[in-house]
Amino acid sequence: MSENSIKMVSISNSINSFNISHNTLDWQMLYLHSGTLTITVNSSIYLLSPPNLLFISPNDFYYINQNNSAQYTTVQFKSNHLYDFSSTDKIFALDSTLIDLADALLTEQDQFQQELILQLLLNKCSKLDSNPTALKDEKTRIFSKAIIIMERYITSTITVDDLAKMLRVSISYLKRIFWKFTGIGVHEYYLMLKINKAKQLLLSGYSITRTAKVLRFSSQPYFSTTFKRVTGISAKAFSKGIDTYTSPRRQLQQPTTTKPANTSVPSPHRSDLPDYLL
Questions:
Q1: Cβ 53 vs Cβ 91: under 8 Å
Q2: N or C: which end of the chain has fewer CB within 10 A?
Q3: How far is it, in rounded angstroms, from Cα 81 to Cα 78?
């Protein structure tokens, strides 16, 4: 990709949401059309209402609970630009101009124009203040505190029993909270956090052996097996920058229609672009 470029991957339309969790290397843009959507992004749980737009950064964990009933579109794309959409600054309420851009992106058939529209939408959103509506009931507070503790112990070890005691809740209650907000168990989520940290270490030049030792895995083979299970790519391939990423873990499918980015259409001339791109 050229400097500050966008590469479309796919567009998926969902009518009713089912359990789905991702830990992806690509960017995701979730555009909510109708209904409400409760979504977990890393350590926070948000309530989305239309017309909300949510950006999910590469390596973020997100989970959509099956109890939601909403219409939304997910746009998957690659970008070599580091947008400043942090875990608490990535949800936007769209005005009429941004709604027109988002709608144009979803109806446009030409990939070149799709990428131009998406680039414009990203640039405009990056200059706006976000308006996240974070849920703050007892369960969400316990969940967020649990993630903070896990991250504090990322280079050591902590058991589910230890975590429950620190939070002053029962193990069964803690497990129910994690299943509700992540769709996976407490220990599996902790391993996922460790693997995300492992990615950072490997990219910074740490060896696989040293990374496994720093993150207190019992052995290098166990680390390598866990890394492959969580990410879908081996630690060796990841450290070499080989882009063979596949979907992580199990993924519960939802009824969607997916439109891959069209790569066969030639790039249009500037005079062929819509007015809002000129």
A1: yes
A2: C
A3: 9
